[in-house]
Amino acid sequence: MSDDTIRLVTIGRILRRRRRLLTVLTVVGALVGYGVSALFPPRYTASASVLLPGQWEERELLTQVEIATSSAVVDRAATALGWTGVDGGELRERVSAQAADGNIITVSGTADTPERAQRLSDRVARELVAFAARVSGDSAESEAVKGAEALRRKVVETNRRISDLARAADPGRTVESVQARTSLAKLRTSLEEAMKKLERADPASGRAGMVVMGPAARPTAEAPPTRVQLIAAGALLFFLLTVVGHLAAARVNRRLRTEPEIAAALGSTLLGTVDVPGERGAHRPGGRGARARVRRLLGIDTRWDLPAPRSSGGEADRRIRYRRVWSRLQDRLSGSRRLLVVVVDGDEIARRAAGRLVAEAGTDTAGGDPVPRVVEVSVDRPMVPDRDAESGALVVLSAGSWTAGELAGVAGACADGGHEVVGIVLAGAVRARTARSADGPSDSRPPDGDTPALAVHGRASGHATGEPV
């Protein structure tokens, strides 16, 4: 799986085979989210709208938004509210503002109760309007009034100069003097009309003051993130982390799955594959104690990344596979038919396949040759009994269970014991058909007289541990 693309079938396999672990960790995540929500008290947010009449540019609206959250406005609101232990600095973290369509600024306040949130937003909105009015009255309006008064003085002075020029002109004696007096009269008339229009104009250029569009609505629900949202976020986070952790572990998995890789790691030839009817717990390792019980309870004592067992072709087909493997093995043996069958400790599928192979070998030894001997070796400290009368070692294992280093250690243990690895047999789990025929039991059981005969398992002792039963 380390080189495969992550597909939906992989996600489905995780959900199906790790449902207990996913359920437990999802509940743990929900509890963590609940604990986080208990650390943060509920918050409520209320919003008040302030209308800015007239024509406003976007940058001017942004300026008003910044003013709404400035200390000049929020500190005055904190003073007016008079909440114990709450100053302007803390309120600035609870107040926000944004410009909406239609020259409207929305002022939002967050507090621990709906009433406080409503009062906070209303007070900040009123303080914003009052601050804007003060700034407009102190600067814009005063400057406009001063400018208009100065312009009136200039107009009066200009009219006086026009009158002086008209008197200085020779009245009615020449055509040029008449034209000059007429032009001066028109200029005076234009100045008087301009002054009348200026007096009728608003010094603030049509900019009326800000208006609070009613009181803020009292909030009825908590502001996000709510307790429910935190619980859901914690559960989802733990669920996703568990799935991603499984995928990451599968990507870095170095267990060999293909036949060429397994043959190269053991330095021998693959003789074939055999089928073993799958059983509940076939991939379940043994173990006792609290840790083993917890692993069984969570369902993590079995591999999740193994493919689903294939459908079985029946007991007859399985016997044919075993006999063909045994026939190929006989072609590679020389002299004595004695053979050492090596199974890795913990590989239940391989152990059952080895027992079945020994049983098939027992039915084929008409000449009285000894039946092969089965030993189990540990991958941590592999040890194989010393060579006695064996012609070689046959390694039986299941694909996707061991790394190249572990298999190389098994091959090295065989070499240390003087055994040549004469072949490799891969065992795979299949689904046995459960339908019963009309005259007998299901074909998932071997026929009478074909019960596998296993030798006493050899551990890391370095000596033969028994003869066939």
Automatic annotation (TrEMBL):
Residues 4-63 form the Polysaccharide chain length determinant N-terminal domain. It comes from the Bacteria. The chain crosses the membrane at residues 21-40, 228-249. The keyword Acetylation does not apply. It is found in: Cell membrane. Residues 435-469 are annotated as: Disordered. Keywords: Cell membrane, Coiled coil, Membrane, Transmembrane, Transmembrane helix. InterPro entries: Bact_polysacc_biosynth/exp (IPR050445), LPS_length_determ_N (IPR003856). It is a multi-pass membrane protein. Residues 148-201 form a coiled coil. The keyword Endoplasmic reticulum does not apply. Belongs to the CpsC/CapA family. This is Wzz/FepE/Etk N-terminal domain-containing protein. It comes from Streptomyces amakusaensis. The lineage of its organism: Bacteria, Bacillati, Actinomycetota, Actinomycetes, Kitasatosporales.
